[in-house]
Every structure is written in C-alpha cells, then in structure tokens.
Design a protein that fits this description.
mainly alpha
Length: 222
C-alpha cells in the first residue's frame, strides 16, 4: 500500500512540474528596456536603441538618415541679437531668414530699437569698433558667427573682436559695451561710476560650473 502511495506521489509531482514548464514557455515576459545595459530587450529595435523608450537606432551603414525636408527654427550666430534688436513680432521671421537676406529685411527695425535703447549712440561717438549706429546694425543684422582660420579665436579678448567664440567669452558684456559703452573701451560710458548707471555689464562674470578639459567641455547641468 505504501509503495502505491509513493508511486502516486511521484507521478503527481512529475505532472505538476511538466505543467509548470509548459505554462512558463507559453507566457514569456520580455524584460523592460533600459537603453543602457548593452542588451536588446523590451521593444528595442537594436541594442539600447529604438522602440518606445530609447533613442532611434542609426539608419544603415552611413549613420543617421538625414534625408527629408527640414525647417529652420532659430538663428543664433551671435547670441541675443534677435531678442535685443528685433521687435518681438518679427523674431520668428528673423530666425527663419537666411543671413544673406537679413540686412535688407531687418536693418530699419533693428536700427529703430538700437536708437530707442541709446538715443545718443552716434552723437556720443558710436562704439569701440569705430561704428556708428547704421554700421553697427548692418553688421548685426547679418547674424552669422565668423571664425578666424588664423590667429586668435574670440568674441572679444581685449584686442581681437568677433573672430569666433570661446566658451569663456563674456558675450553679453561685450554686446552691452557695444550698445552703451561709447567709443573708448578704457573709459567707457555707463560703467556705474559717479552718477552713471551700470549698463555695460550683466554682472555675470563666469559660468556657474567650471568647464571640463575634454569633450563635451560643458559641465553637466545638475
């Protein structure tokens, strides 16, 4: 009798194991995609790319597929040009205009805004680049960043101007200097001395975090 019960117990146990095994095979659950584990999981199209959670995979051996129609949304050759000098309702148009057409379309509007910021711009001698109001705006309305192929690359380093831009260049202060500082950088107007207002500096002299010594050079935001 005991032998029969023992055999029956083994048979039931084996049957249960077989049913569990078959049930597992019919209900495979894919793990969640993590996009950084080096494994193609979840609904990823490749290893850590594609699907509903990860960035798209590269398309083919040539890399990412850039074919298609693209629309220009912004123009930031020189930071703050559109925000400071272009009337608010025209800024989207400015940002989607090719540089070769900007001068003809926006010089008058930008000149009006410069003169509203500093009505005495020309009579005070223009700016440290030797430009009057019209020359200054003609330069800015062609919103491209020039890059020097030889010599110093800088937005302004005390001597060289507008030959490119380094991360540490104080772009805003130099813009303010060109608007409010007058023609002599050594004795500028509106420097906060005496009864003059401080208009030639935004008060921010360095980045909130030190720059890195290798690519991407910018520190993490948090």
């Amino acid at each position: 009798m005991k032998k029969i019960l023992y055999i029956s117990f083994l048979f039931i146990t084996a049957l249960a194991l077989v049913q569990c095994s078959e049930d597992d095979n019919n209900n495979i659950i894919d793990p969640e995609a993590t996009c950084e584990d080096g494994i193609q999981n979840g609904d990823e199209d490749g290893i850590d790319c594609g699907g509903s959670n990860c960035l798209p995979c590269e398309q083919g051996p040539e890399g990412i597929d850039f074919s298609g129609t693209y629309a220009q949304e912004d123009q930031v050759g020189r930071p703050a040009v559109s925000i400071v000098f272009v009337t608010e309702g025209f800024r989207d148009d400015f940002n989607t205009t090719i540089p070769s057409e900007m001068n003809a379309l926006f010089t008058d509007d930008m000149l009006m805004n410069l003169e509203s910021l500093n009505p005495d711009y020309t009579t005070n001698g223009g700016n440290v680049l030797g430009q009057g109001a019209t020359d200054f705006i003609s330069m800015l309305s062609n919103d491209v960043l020039w890059v020097a192929q030889n010599g110093s690359t800088t937005f302004f380093d005390g001597t060289t101007t507008l030959t490119g831009r380094k991360l540490g260049d104080d772009v805003m202060d130099f813009h303010l200097m060109l608007i409010f500082g007058g023609p002599d950088i050594n004795t500028p107007f509106n420097d906060g001395s005496g009864e003059q207002p401080l208009l030639i500096s935004d008060g921010v002299s360095e980045n909130d975090k030190p720059f890195l010594e290798s690519f991407p050079y910018l520190a993490a935001p948090f």
